[in-house]
Design goal:
Elements: H1 13-25, H2 30-42, H3 45-57, H4 59-65, H5 71-78, H6 87-94, H7 104-111, H8 115-126, E1 132-133, E2 139-140, H9 143-151, H10 157-176, H11 179-183, H12 186-197
Antiparallel strand pairs: 1-2
Helix pairs in contact: 1-3, 2-3, 2-5, 3-5, 6-8, 6-9, 7-8
Amino acid sequence: LAYANLEGKEISEAVRKAALAVCERVGRLPLALEIMGQLARKSSVVDVVRSMEEVLSHEEWVQAKGEKTSIEAVLAVAGREYAHPRAKEALTFVGYLHPEHVRADLLAVLMEVEETEASQMLQALAEFSVVKANPEGGYTVHRLVQEAAREMDQDREVGNRVVEVLDGLIQAVSEKGEYQKAYGLIPHLLHIPLLATGVDREKDFPSN
């Protein structure tokens, strides 16, 4: 209820039951509750529960995931509400970047769009706490969101694109001797090999 901005307010029995249903469906996982709460602010707790049930009952979801509720299911619900039509696609790219250095300028290069549009995509994700604004600039993203995002890239087409672009950018700035520009790429280059080996270094991930 706090995430949905309803804590301490008078609510109906239907809303109370819906809130309890959300908690049970997401296993009371704080990250999932925060995203669902932000969704509820835009519509209602009852509507959020209905959307969740639709996702979980979808034939493709049941066959691939069973009835297990996860961050993937929560993101599937959020994906219906993003303000930008390509925000869900942008999230798959974010899944491969260093979680504390998600920036619109790099996303723009990866997706071949203007930086302003990439910024709008990230803002659309931040609206539901899928990513969070970093006071120092750019955004951060939770490792669980990244894991779910990479699941949307089954053929690793996006992952390959990220590696290819980063490699090209490093070569380009090195050839020009613009080494300061390369500093911003280093965290991503160090992060991606960890994904390939399955190493999970908690200290590399924000706690949001």
